[in-house]
Amino acid sequence: MLGEAISFVRRNLSFVCVVVAANCALVAFDDYSGGNKSNSAQFFVALSFGFFIQKAILNGDEKVSNLTDKRGFGGYIWKNLLIMLVVIGIGIGAPVAFGAASLSKNVFLLLCLAVIAIILPLLLALVGTWPIAGIAGSNSGLSAAFSRGKRGLAPTFLRLFAGLFLPFIGALILMTAATSMSYEADSIFSDGKLNLIALAILVICQWASIFGLCYVSIVLARKLLSSEAPRPPFGGRQGNAIAATSVSEVFE
Fold first, then answer.
1. Packing angle of the helix pair 196-228, 153-180 (nearest 10 deg)
2. CB 214 within 8 Å of CB 8
3. Which residues pair with 193 in a beta bridge?
4. Hey, how many other C-beta atoms are within 10 angstroms of the C-beta on 209?
5. Confidence label for 208 from pLDDT (cuts 50, 70 and 90)
């Protein structure tokens, strides 16, 4: 699926560039204004990007062409919002339940992020096809999505974890490396002037993040399609075999 994500980005390069530019503009606006007012806008852009990618995959298209067709968009948004609220609730509630609130603020936040890093791909692997079903015109609910998610849970979890958090980890490494070389990488505007190093790092990180989101969207869309495909009769080749997924196969 990694190759499919690369091919999909190449065929939709202009669309991806617009999304990257929009996210960079939102981050730059926050940096200039000194706030975090665009977080919800960035989240909406990410969801819209995933929606159009998954709609194209489900329709068998190689390009995102019709941006006016938003069938299932409303349900897609609120279902994903519900999943995120559950993830955030578990990510904060679990550490609090185990007494982590007594730790320092930074340690508590790191612990919450670690829990979210596990819960988010796990929950998406289990029920991530629930919002996508509406795009395909299906009314299947959470129970059907959970049944789909249980099949091939481990490889799906690994793929989603890689797509969601490897770009984030890479961004942290890149910013740490820039800081170690005495570059100001955390502020796009420095003393009223544009910081070209920080801007370049922002563009690279946004490209990596958008590519990861594209990969995650394709993984979930393919999972829905494969679950709806006809299955061989019990006792056939797939009925008796259990695939052993290695680490290298996760990224195929």
1. 180
2. yes
3. 190
4. 22
5. very high
